[in-house]
């Protein structure tokens, strides 16, 4: 019997997605990276208490830092709790950092967290290098998605 990807006890599951980022940015490249967390933060992530909506990453002094990501306080860690929005260090190899730094330094490019997931029991963040979309680009994308969806529905009805 295979387990679903959404069960809380599953070691390989997506905790939180940044759906707004896929609408606001055109993602050029993606990379999974580890994240340094406190114990109470890991417990909150396991309870799906993460918000990525306003998050972004920045490269500072050869390290990648994640900002504005809310990880809710863990209710049972009374005195040893963590602050909600603290900068969190992302764990990447030097080669990956230089590759991403070159891409992110281009004009109009930024590092965006796309999702938080577990991989073999470790908390991982999928970072994307994206270029911001203009309003007309967003409209074109919505139109093309609608057209693709209508074509797929027509093909399914025709095959029945």
Please describe what this structure looks like:
By secondary structure, this protein is α+β, with helices and mostly antiparallel strands. The protein has helices spanning 19-24, 39-46, 94-104, 135-159; strands at 14-17, 25-35, 50-51, 56-60, 63-67, 70-71, 88-91, 109-119, 122-132. The protein is built from four helices and nine strands; from the N terminus they run E-H-E-H-E-E-E-E-E-H-E-E-H. It is 31% helix and 34% strand. It has one domain: Small Protein B, Chain: A (Beta Barrel). It is globular and about 60 Å long. Strand 8 and strand 9 (122-132) form a beta hairpin. 22% of the residues are buried. The chain has a seven-stranded antiparallel beta sheet with strand order 1-8-9-2-7-5-4. Strands 3-6 form a two-stranded antiparallel sheet.
Give the arrangement of secondary structure elements.
Elements: E1 14-17, H1 19-24, E2 25-35, H2 39-46, E3 50-51, E4 56-60, E5 63-67, E6 70-71, E7 88-91, H3 94-104, E8 109-119, E9 122-132, H4 135-159
